[in-house]
Amino acid sequence: MATDIPIAEEKYLDLPGGRRLAYAEIGNPSSSILVVFFHGAFGVGTANYLQKYLVEKDVHFVAPTLAGWGKSSPRSKGTSFHVALASDTTALIDHLHPEKEGLKIYIAGGSFGTVPAQMLYGASFELFPAGRNVAGCMALAPFSPFKLHKDHAKSMTVPNYIAVGPPSQYIPFNLLQRLGSVALKHKMNTPEKAEAFVRQTLFDKMDEAEKAEFAKWREETGKVEGQTEREFGLNMMRSVQDSWQGFMEMADAINGDWGFAPKDLDEEHNARPILLVTSEGDAMAPDAMAKWLAESYKNGHCRSVKGGHLAALFHLNELWKELFEL
């Protein structure tokens, strides 16, 4: 299997305390529309392709790598996930767009990336000043805040229940996460192994209808057969090449304090729409979570697409258009 996948130049922002934030960007850096997209589990910030609608809107697309993943430093000890996230993202936005007047920001994320996306959507403006510029949010295959969504575990598969559900919090010393990292390390220490793993867990589970959507999407985006799987595998390997800290704290972030409750957001926060994209065939982020979120956010809009965990990827162009027009 080839490993010569072109990678958009990864950039680095120095942060206080000797930390750094890795990110990738594409589009117009002088645009008045900024899209910030957060990757999911075993991912890094990538910006190799921009959907046609976003090109037409002349956006600046930025994909940060979350703390503890890839080349981004782990968060400082003693700082909660949502506070560290707001601080790092504020630094990145201030660096790229120091002039906020007239700037519209769209926050988005996929799978685990919907957790930081929602945290920023609901963050207080004191904690995340750029929140006043947020025009909307999109969550693809979203997770709900387990601390508030009391029935979240009912819709989870057994592997996910164990990995990020209640057992991840009840068993001390992060034992499940440590065992998980040991079990997974040998599956993603080379691009070839990582590609085989991502094929097994995601792509091979598509039904014929979703495979047809995938093929159509490949044609529209100019990707050759196998390229997407190799890109996913390479990013998966890169995500844990230097540290497993991001993986170790993922369950704690989902189960912990998000800094707000969706039902308690004020009018200014609720003025911004949040588009929640789900699929009934998604076993990793069950659609019950998206439905709970849609009922909890006063300006929540739920959209269902056919397929599994990756289904939203094949509809992103129309989803961006829907978000911008809400």
Automatic annotation (TrEMBL):
Classification via InterPro entries: AB_hydrolase_1, AB_hydrolase_fold
Occurrences of domain AB hydrolase-1 (ranges): 35-309
Domain of life: Eukaryota
Ranges in a coiled coil: none
Protein name: AB hydrolase-1 domain-containing protein
Organismal lineage: Eukaryota, Fungi, Dikarya, Basidiomycota, Agaricomycotina
